[in-house]
Design a protein that fits this description.
420 residues, alpha+beta, 2 domains, five-stranded antiparallel beta sheet, four-stranded antiparallel beta sheet, 16 helices, 15% strand, globular, Periplasmic lipoprotein
Length: 420
């Protein structure tokens, strides 16, 4: 009799406990809905321009950390368009959203748009933060999420907390200590950054880019590549397909980290760069014998394919495409000339790198079969090559004519079963 009387009370208590447990989630969803908007504040694609690649390269060359000593003070002028591209690339790759950077008199504004999770219908989290220039790091003077203002102190605390949760608090601390001055220059459409070089910054950057597991996989990939090429005579011509398949497909359950590591090791080899320049740990790793890897009989096609595949796997398709076009523009100004054949190899490599990231099970089945170079890259016949800058401008300054060539490349790629 007593148990029958208690049963409804227990059930009621359990329901109340469930309601209390779900209350924070319900409040969060209500807040998220109230702070979200039906339209995105930032609406753009992921495209990276070749100009941004050129600017980034110029900054890296002029601030090569290998030529800096501890305590060196440097001032660098960064175009706002490059910062804008970097923020949008980060938002696209890390947050699945879009971002932008806007300069005004003595402030700079970062805007981010992210699709609101868990809310029916198209709803967007539109975030904005306004920074004011100052000695040292800039400070937030205004922030908002949708129509809801966020106190500056709370916004800075949220950013610091997010960095700490992501495991980058030490790197953030070192970077903040290195910054001496940040000035916004709207007249020059740039940001002027004065910093003091600290070698730990480079070590921390490596630790952010490569996890300990990545290093293990790169070591294994380097050993595998050395073992594969040891069977060939020095300087022998070897089809890339004969190396790519066994290097990339030793197991059906190979992890993304292992696949990306294999592509990076291969790209370093194709570019004839010592991996130890990027990773000091690689100094004692096995050295692969130098052979001539080719794709459809061409060494340059193998290089373009392999390097673009690694870029796509590590940095994404927009970065790989932009770097490929930038390289051809640069070649037209004094190198081997602009080549649509090279662009085709770039695009094939980019598509291959995307498969490694997005659809490895299907790629694994292909690689375990009888793979030839023709499965990786379509025919290059008829694609214009060796164009000087003047000749390129004369023939392809009309964007429609240029698009006809790039469309033809995409059509040929679509004919290959691997890229359908």
């Amino acid at each position: 009799m007593t148990s029958l009387l208690r049963s409804p009370a227990i059930s009621l208590m359990r329901r109340r406990c469930w309601m209390l447990a779900l209350l924070p989630l319900l409040i969060a969803l209500i807040f998220l809905f109230a702070a979200s908007d039906p339209a995105p504040m930032v609406s753009r694609d992921e495209t990276i321009s070749p100009t941004s690649i050129a600017e980034a390269r110029r900054l890296l060359v002029s601030n090569d950390p290998r030529r800096l000593r501890r305590g060196d003070e440097r001032t660098v002028v960064i175009p706002s368009a490059l910062i804008d591209t970097a923020i949008n690339h980060f938002a696209s790759r890390s947050l699945g959203g879009r971002g932008t950077f806007v300069l005004s008199d003595d402030t700079a504004e970062i805007q981010l748009t992210i699709r609101a999770p868990g809310i029916p219908g198209p709803r967007y989290c539109n975030l904005r933060a306004v920074f004011q220039e100052a000695e040292g790091e800039p400070h937030i003077v205004a922030a908002s999420m949708g129509s809801l203002p966020i106190p500056s102190a709370l916004a800075e605390w949220l950013i610091a907390s997010a960095i700490s949760i992501a495991g980058f608090s030490e790197e953030w601390k070192i970077a903040r200590q290195a910054i001496r001055r940040l000035a916004f220059e709207p007249a020059r459409d740039s940001v002027e950054l004065t910093y003091v070089w600290e070698p730990h910054l480079l070590d921390r950057a490596r630790s952010m880019a490569f996890t300990p597991q990545d290093l293990v996989h790169m070591h294994a990939a380097q050993k595998a590549l050395a073992g594969l090429l040891d069977h060939y005579a020095a300087r022998a011509r070897v089809p890339l397909s004969q190396i790519l398949a066994p290097l990339l497909a030793p197991a059906s359950d190979q992890t993304l980290s292992a696949n990306r590591a294999a592509l990076l090791v291969l790209a370093s080899y194709l570019a004839e760069k010592n991996l130890a320049m990027l990773l000091p740990e690689a100094k004692g790793w096995p050295r692969a014998r130098r052979v001539k890897l080719t794709l459809l009989g061409r060494e340059d096609s193998a290089q373009h394919f392999g390097i673009s595949a690694a870029l796509a796997a590590w940095a994404g398709e927009p970065a790989a495409n932009a770097i490929g076009v930038y390289k051809e523009i640069d070649d037209s100004r004094g190198g081997s000339g602009f080549s649509f054949a090279d662009l085709a190899a770039d695009r094939a490599g980019t598509r291959f790198g995307e498969l490694v990231v997005d659809d490895y099970p299907r790629l694994y089945k292909v690689l375990r079969g009888s793979v030839t170079d023709a499965d990786l890259l379509p025919s290059l016949a008829g694609l214009p090559e060796y164009l000087s800058e003047a000749e390129f401008k004369r023939r392809f300054s009309d964007l429609n004519i240029y698009a006809q060539q790039t469309d033809e490349i995409e059509r040929r790629l679509a004919m290959l079963p691997l890229y359908r």
